[in-house]
Amino acid sequence: MHACGYNWLDSNKQAALRLAERIDELMRQYGRNCQQVILVTHSMGGLVARRCAQLPGMADKIAGVVHGVMPATGAPVAYRRCKVGMSDEDPIAGAVIGPSGQEVTAVFAQAPGALQLLPTQDYAPGWLRLIDDQGASAMPRQPVKDPYEEIYLRRDRWWGLLREEWLAPKDGDPITWKDFADNIGSAKDFHQSIAGSYHPQTYVYYGSDDNHRSFESITWQMRRGSSLNGPHASRPDAFTVSSLQMHEVRDSGRSPLYVGGRAEAVPPSRGDPDAPVRTVQTSHWELHCQMQDGAGDGTVPVSSGSAPMKRARYGEVRQQIKATGFDHEASYASPLAQHFTLYSLIKIAAKAKRPLCAS
Asked: Are strands 285-289 and 218-224 parallel, antiparallel or unpaired?
């Protein structure tokens, strides 16, 4: 068994080229003893393997592929992290990837590989929505057809993927909107290149566990804001809120966002003059980004994990199972995942080319 690492921030297209080089290195190393390799992937590595199998001559060098917990059509959680970070999702991981939207955006916006984790054109439309304080829909669900133009490159709505000012992080190297748009274009090209494309001998397992909730969709919920100075005057209606631009919503990169009002300092009580001054956010509305809404593995939702069998163009996916009892990162520690992987390896090996030395 051999490993092949890759830079998850760089395009998966580049990672696929590196994987192809690694395969060629190993085949040269083993000579007549190796006519084909079997790829076992985890998560994003599945996207790399799918692109690698498309490179000239590579499909014949790969006997088959086992995909584990692959975000086959992306994951809405990537959008959410660009908006509100990870502090409320996973504080420990958030300390690394970014606790708020500013920190995540500073990385994702200039990382083609990270942007390739966003929901693709094949992800079920309407995965982004806004509901009012009564739970009713406050805008048409997005995207209708094209997530790239309708969400990721949207600059005229607060629910677009990112705020332009966050492209210039404090103490970091800024990029322009054009740089970001080029990276989104690269992600779109990559998504389209692998859409429905799988190696002819493909086996897949994915998580479908209510104990490891994932984001099937992203829901923003309007809640009435608070005021220190009595009731609000005119509160904008839901349609108006859905149409607000970036600069019309107060946004610190964490949930909630605020419509109207301001950050107000609350002086300490007279009984405790040494108490710190508190800051309270007043607003007409608070926009809360809801938590996980579907089964999965904690990262990849069922709709994306199960997509290979549904999306494969020519029936390349030989077998696919859904499983419970594991989270995304540790999926291969699951006995069920291990057994399915071993089963898949045996099935693939049975159809693989025999080493020339065995002839």
From this structure: antiparallel
CA–CA gap between residue 242 and residue 248 (Å, rounded): 11
Whether residue 140 is found in the same domain as residue 285: no
Beta sheet of 128-131, edge-to-edge order: 128-131, 218-224, 285-289, 257-259
Torsion of CA 235, 130, 82, 9, to 10 degrees: -160
CB 168 within 8 A of CB 176: no
For residues 161 and 273, membership in a common domain is answered with no
DSSP letter for each residue of 237-283? PHHHHHT--GGGSB--SSSPEEES--EEEEPPPTT-TTSPPEEEE--
Express each pLDDT in 120-154 by its tens digit: 999 999 999 999 999 999 999 999 999 999 999 99
Q: pTM (2 decimals)?
A: 0.92
The counts of H helices and E strands in the chain are: 13, 12
